[in-house]
Amino acid sequence: MQLALSTWQEVESYLERSTAIIIPIGSTEQHGPNGLIGTDAICPTRIASGIEEKVEVLVAPTINYGMAQHHMAFPGTITLKPSTLIHLVQDVVTSLQQHGFTHFYFINGHGGNIAPVTTAFCEIYHASGTSNATTPRCRLANWWRDEVIGKLAADLYGEAEGHHATVSEVALSYFAHPEAVKDVAMSPEIAPNGEIYDAVDYRRKFPDGRIGSNPALATVADGEKFYRLAVDSLATDYKAFTTGDAS
Predict the structure, then answer these.
(1) 8-state DSSP, 33
(2) Angstrom distance (rounded) from CA 142 to CA 127
(3) Which helix (H) or strand (E) holds 108?
(4) What is the rounded distance in angstroms from the CA atom of residue 112 to the CA atom of residue 110?
(5) Full pLDDT tens readout for the chain, 247 residues
(6) Hey, what domains does the chain have and what are their CATH numbers?
(7) What is the maximal distance between C-alpha atoms in the chain?
(8) What is the reported pTM?
């Protein structure tokens, strides 16, 4: 059930059965020579849609923008300030909480979101702890960090999986949008690794946008494998989270 495609009456009815909601969150940023700029939002959106097919759940509109300042030397990237993202997450949660939602399951596609989003959770818990309101429950599920996803990526690609513009995320985005598959040669085949500090440093060290990866290996067929694993694993985690059985 999609929040954006529902009426308020349908949401009110849903709340009689469940007070949990899935909120996909990603980023709009470069993903190397063949990776889609929307990759980090496309992946959690597609996974959330798959969970919706298996579990009765309400899925909120995807938060398509994230904290991506380190990619700003590459055209097309859009970033939020960390403080903006923190306030955005707070406002989304408190708005939905006002209607009766209690459990907020964020499916995340971008590493740069982790610190701001978890900080937002801390602010939400702090505010609830100083009032008589029921404290909401928030979880950030970073789909690519799931153990089964990591194992499949290692088995398929080894060191070529990399750290940004990874093969797995590009493959999953291709599965979601096969019409947008790009055929681009990589030079070198596997990009170098290293730390980055800001956008200028990133572009200087990694001029094509990749870090440690060879996303030319990405295929729609592999993307479907990552999709099905992520849906099964996160659907199980979501159900545990909403029933209070999650650790």
Answers:
(1) T
(2) 25
(3) strand 103-108
(4) 5
(5) 999 999 999 999 999 999 999 999 999 999 999 999 999 999 999 999 999 999 999 999 999 999 999 999 999 999 999 999 999 999 999 999 999 999 999 999 999 999 999 999 999 999 887 665 678 999 999 999 999 999 999 999 999 999 999 999 999 999 999 999 999 999 999 999 999 999 999 999 999 999 999 999 999 999 999 999 999 999 999 999 999 754 4
(6) 3-243 (3.40.50.10310)
(7) 58
(8) 0.95
